[in-house]
Every structure is written in structure tokens, then in C-alpha cells.
């Protein structure tokens, strides 16, 4: 089965724009469109429209690397917002409405670089886990913006 996949697979597109290594990507369909978001050590988050192969948005408000990016199904499901959540070397987790180019929330709770984030697969993605160089894992309630554990 793998050999069949490998022999029929081909490169569809290459998205270029970051100036340093890309640290994280995510994919999601919103409003009948397909999007890829990417975070980089160049301190930026970029959103790409897969259908027309173009970058449609750029967030460069960080002073440090962007380590992990995820589309927020919670914001889309409950508020019809196109939101990306990303973690950074500046110890924060940010939520950005990329359709309206507006920062929504910032989670401060880690004391060192936040490496990874993951939304819950239950409750419409209401909960977010984050892991940090400070040797802690936080469980956040996205609805209330509070660290639960």
C-alpha cells in the first residue's frame, strides 16, 4: 500500500516567504476554503490559501521565535472566527483572528519558551495544553482564558 502511495504522490505546491526555518505548520478548512498556517524562527506566522496558492496574511508582532501553530476549532465552531493559536519563545501563547488581522487573547503563565500546544479533541477544542522549557505543562480553558492546572 505504501509503495502505491509513494509512486503516485507528487509535489503539489511550495509556499515560500519565511526567511529562517519553519518550526510548525497546521492545515484546516474554514468557510469552504483550505488554509495552511506556518510559524517560523523568523518570529512570524503566515497564512496561506491552498486553493489559490498565495499567502493571505502575515503576523509579525513577536520579538521571538514562533514555535507551534494550530488553527482553533473552538473559535470557528462557537464564534465563526478564523483564529490561529501560536506559542512563542517570548513565553506566551497568542490567539490571532487572521480574517480580521486582530489579536484576541494572550496567555501568560509560563516562565520560559513555550514549545508545543495542542487543542482538546472534545468540547469543540475548548481546552488547550501547552508545554514549556520551564518544565511545566499547562491546561488552559480557552473560553475563560484561565490556566486550570
From TrEMBL:
Coiled coil: none annotated. GO terms for cellular component: transferase complex. SUPFAM superfamilies: WD40 repeat-like. Pfam families: WD40 (PF00400). WD repeats lie at residues 15-58, 59-106, 107-149. The keyword Ligase does not apply. This is WD-40 repeat-containing protein. It comes from Reticulomyxa filosa. The lineage of its organism: Eukaryota, Sar, Rhizaria, Retaria, Foraminifera.
Amino acid at each position: 500500500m505504501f509503495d502505491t502511495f509513494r509512486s503516485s504522490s507528487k509535489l503539489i505546491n511550495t509556499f515560500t516567504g519565511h526567511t529562517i526555518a519553519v518550526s510548525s505548520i497546521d492545515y484546516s478548512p474554514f468557510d469552504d476554503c483550505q488554509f495552511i498556517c506556518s510559524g517560523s524562527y523568523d518570529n512570524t506566522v503566515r497564512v496561506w490559501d491552498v486553493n489559490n496558492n498565495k499567502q493571505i496574511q502575515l503576523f509579525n508582532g513577536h520579538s521571538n521565535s514562533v514555535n507551534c501553530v494550530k488553527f482553533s476549532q473552538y473559535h470557528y465552531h462557537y464564534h465563526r472566527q478564523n483564529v490561529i493559536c501560536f506559542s512563542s519563545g517570548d513565553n506566551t501563547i497568542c490567539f490571532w483572528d487572521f480574517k480580521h488581522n486582530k489579536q484576541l487573547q494572550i496567555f501568560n503563565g509560563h516562565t520560559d519558551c513555550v514549545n508545543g500546544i495542542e487543542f482538546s479533541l472534545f468540547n469543540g477544542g475548548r481546552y488547550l495544553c501547552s508545554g514549556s522549557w520551564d518544565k511545566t505543562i499547562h491546561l488552559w480553558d480557552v473560553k475563560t482564558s484561565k490556566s486550570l492546572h
